Amino acid sequence: MTIAEAITGIDQRKRNGIPEDVKIKWLSELDGRVYNELILTHDGGDSIPLPRYDENTIRTTTLLIPSPYERIYLLWLEALIDYTSGEMNRYANAYAMFNNTYAEYARLYHRTHKPKGEKLKFFGTRG
Q1: In contact, 6 and 25? CB cutoff 8 Å
Q2: Is the pTM of this model over 0.85?
Q3: Residues 15-41: pLDDT tens digits?
Q4: Is there a contact between 81 and 14 (Cβ–Cβ < 8 Å)?
Q5: Cis geometry, peptide bond prior to residue 115 (ω within 30 degrees of 0)
Q6: How does the average pLDDT of the chain come out, rounded?
Q7: Is 87 exposed, middle or buried (0-12, 13-18, 19+ CB in 10 A)?
Q8: For the stretch 45-62, what's the b/e string if a residue is b when 16 or more beta carbons lie within 10 angstroms of its beta carbon?
């Protein structure tokens, strides 16, 4: 999913008056979280640059989370729009859906990428 697809997707899904530059900032925050929590904690993560998006970023820039988990971006934007609008019940629901989907993606990432510095652990006694 690209920045443009995420913004168009949320705007079609939910009427809102949030400026595009704010949505781009929110997308940057989420990809920063993915970068710090998942990518940097696994081998090879240091070779991937930290994604930072702002109003000058090309809208066709691809976001970090791939299909089939890319709906995380729409759930994230929906939750933040609801929070900003003071819709706390809707925010709680949207954030719970975001959190569950993000946790699914994180589990997949952990299963498919070797953690940094992982060493073999032995349990029990040696004799």
Answers
A1: no
A2: yes
A3: 999 999 999 999 999 999 999 999 999
A4: yes
A5: no
A6: 92
A7: middle
A8: eeeeeebebeeeeeeeee
